[in-house]
Write a structure and sequence with these properties.
The protein is α+β, with helices and mostly antiparallel strands. Among the domains are: about 5-35; about 40-165 and about 270-340, Nucleotidyltransferase, domain 5 (2-Layer Sandwich), CATH 3.30.420. Helices cover about 40% and strands about 15% of the residues. The strands form three sheets. A five-stranded mixed beta sheet has the order 7-6-5-8-9, sandwiched between helices. Strands 1-2-3-4 form a four-stranded antiparallel beta sheet, with no helix packed on it. A hairpin with a 5-residue loop joins strand 2 (about 10-20) and strand 3. Helix 10 crosses helix 11 (about 295-310).
Length: about 375
């Protein structure tokens, strides 16, 4: 049988007639207070809010042009859905970042099925990557596009994890220097050689490709050594862009991150970062494009909501409202931390500083030793 707890003392209550509006009235048998049960529809509204956020629905097409919807769901923009802590080891993980503005980047880690972690930072650096990796168990292989600071964070957080650099990003880096239509013979040969990265299927073909790259350097060594005098009277390499393209490939070969996907037999490792680029980042960009006009903070929280709802085990709407922090909770935590820091800095502890009364006596007799 359904019963209601008293909001004042928490004891069992029984029915006690109805109000003029027809609402059921309840009376507590312990404290004799009467009350009506308030229906909390926040979980239902949160479900509607997320359904709208992940769809192409426009608020202008809603009844009243979305004014009622915005008023009822405005409180959900203050929630921060935080990433879970992943304690299960995965064979292959994909890491990449998506920029929401020039100085706001969200680093994302995902598996073949779910989004496992996300972290917001100003730009890609080792500190941001480490903060993302520390909440996830180290996988066997990680695939990335080689963002700034990623190699350092990988060495410190996941030292035993193999790194596969995305083949497509390695090719586009060469294309950035040679362009799609190189004008020199050496440039055309290097561009065609980099395109052959997509057709390498075993270690033998990889070794042959590396030998062809070395042969290319030997054939065009004199051409690549040509120097030019700039306007300031300094000598610079005439074909500097070609040298940068070659150096980008040589660096990946020396770090052994170009053909990592060929070294595993028991698991399937993709040489591309398409799972994250096309499966996550593309969906996030589509969502932000469908709801263009959001402020930067709301765009960031929209990314957080999408990532959390695609995590392995997201909580129900009611549990999200109960557990996830809000802007007010975070601001209060910062105020408490700031107040504690100021107190600790202003009050000297034992042995931290010299107290004035330890060296001065407030008496009528003069002291000349200080």
């Amino acid at each position: 049988m359904r019963y209601i707890k008293c909001p004042y003392c928490g004891e069992k209550s029984s029915k006690y007639g109805r109000t003029r509006a027809g609402t059921q009235r309840w009376k507590c048998g312990n404290c004799n207070n009467t009350f009506t049960e308030k229906v909390d529809s926040s979980a239902k509204l949160l479900t509607q809010f997320l359904r709208w956020l992940f769809s192409k629905e426009v608020q202008a097409d809603m009844p009243g042009k979305g004014r009622t919807f915005r008023r009822k769901t405005a409180k959900f923009w203050s929630i921060w859905p935080l990433p879970p802590k992943i304690e299960e080891q995965y064979d292959v993980l994909y890491l990449d970042g998506i920029y929401l503005s020039r100085k706001l980047c969200v680093l994302i880690c995902c598996s073949d099925e779910h989004v496992l972690g996300w972290y917001v930072c100003r730009y890609e650096n080792s500190r941001g990557w480490k903060a993302l990796m520390e909440r996830i168990v180290a996988p066997r292989v990680v695939i990335s596009d080689g963002g700034y600071g990623f190699a350092k964070a990988l060495r410190e957080s996941w030292p035993h994890t193999n790194h596969q650099r995305c083949i497509f990003h390695a090719f586009t880096q060469v294309k950035r220097y040679t362009t799609g239509r190189p004008k020199t013979v050496a440039g055309r040969e290097l561009y065609e050689l980099s395109k052959r990265l997509f057709s390498i299927n075993n270690l033998g073909q990889a070794a042959a490709w590396i030998e062809e790259l070395e042969s290319w350097r030997m054939r065009h060594d004199a051409f690549l050594r040509e120097m030019t005098m700039d306007e300031f009277g300094n000598q610079r390499s005439t074909h500097e862009r070609l040298l940068k393209a070659e150096k980008s490939l040589i660096r990946l070969i020396k770090r052994e991150t170009l053909f990592t996907y060929l070294e595993f037999i028991d698991i399937a490792v993709s040489p591309y970062n398409n799972r994250l680029e096309g499966g996550v980042n593309a969906q996030l960009r589509a969502m932000l494009r469908n709801h263009r006009g959001l402020s930067l903070e709301r765009r960031l929280k929209a990314v957080y909501w999408w990532c959390y709802m695609h995590s392995p085990r997201p909580l129900s709407a009611s549990n999200i409202l109960r557990c996830m922090p809000t802007d007010a909770c975070i601001a209060k935590a910062y105020q408490v931390a700031d107040r504690r820091y100021r107190v600790d800095r202003s009050i000297p502890h034992w042995g931290d500083a010299i107290v004035w009364n330890e060296l001065h006596m407030s008496t009528e007799f003069p002291t000349y030793w200080d």
